[in-house]
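User: Fold this one for me? It's Alpha/beta hydrolase fold-3 domain-containing protein.
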Amino acid sequence: MYKPAAGGIVAQIPGALRIYKDGPIERLLLSPFVPACENPDAAGVAMRDVVIDRGTGVGARLFLSTAGAAATTGWRRLPLVVYFHGGTFTAESAFCRRYHRYATSLAARAGALVVSVEYRLAPEHPIPAAYDDAWAALRWVASSSDPWLADRADPWRVFLAGDSAGGDIAFHTAVRAGRDREGTGGGDVEGLVLVHPYFWGPDRLPSELAAESFLTAEAADRHWALVTGGRAGNDDPWINPSDEDVAFASLTCRRALVAVAEKDLVRERVRRLAARYRGCGGDVTLVESAGEDHGFHLSGPPRARSIELLDHIVKFINKEGSRGRGQSYRRRRQK
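Assistant: Here's what I get for Alpha/beta hydrolase fold-3 domain-containing protein.
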């Protein structure tokens, strides 16, 4: 491990990243790599890694619920969740233990096929690289070129999901899909799942002045310049979505689940975004976790509120009456 000289840090995201003046980058928020295994694990989930774009290195880990797959008879297919991990845009991975465990639980509980996207990280790949990678992943999913997607997934029950920075990425992927509805597109999207999505802005909201979160407003104020290579400030629509962005996201995904933690620094911004989404005609399920902080659901072993939050997400994904069950899939195949 690199051991820098004292005083060598030139930029940092507390608890996540340090950049030293002589070049090295130290990532503090990174759980160990876990290999994939196509043989179902104890949770009944098979998994394998795929390359989406060899030029950029974008890939994904696929998590297939074998119980759900066994039930894919006739026209019945699995819901498909495209998941973007958190980690301040600078850390973590679809292949790390933390997100491997979470995606496994999500696939098992929802009876779903989860595509956990491995996007490029800042500062080596400044924003908007992560958003471009997310779009490439959605386009790849829409192509159904992978046999698991072609044989098991319902293309009319696609969900964009993510937590923290990944929630921001999922939101903006929905925005891009909305803007591109008349173009080649990223396919049909049923819903949006935002778990403690990370948004910020140039002004402080009241909750941010008295936050109990481990996140600090001071660190958030400096964060966006670091991940964009100094090219954008906190008024950037990527981190401070416009009303037009919200309208396009709600056009893409008529249903959204938005999760808020009571102690989260960004909780008020997230509640406001949910209200704006609803104002654009979107059907919003707001889930609030009392006494919890940003990203609490990833801490193991799972606690009662973590399980409760996952239950809400599973119920949202498998909501009866959602498009795609049976008839919609048949119509799509017959075109």
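One thing worth pointing out: The two ends are 56 Å apart (CA to CA).
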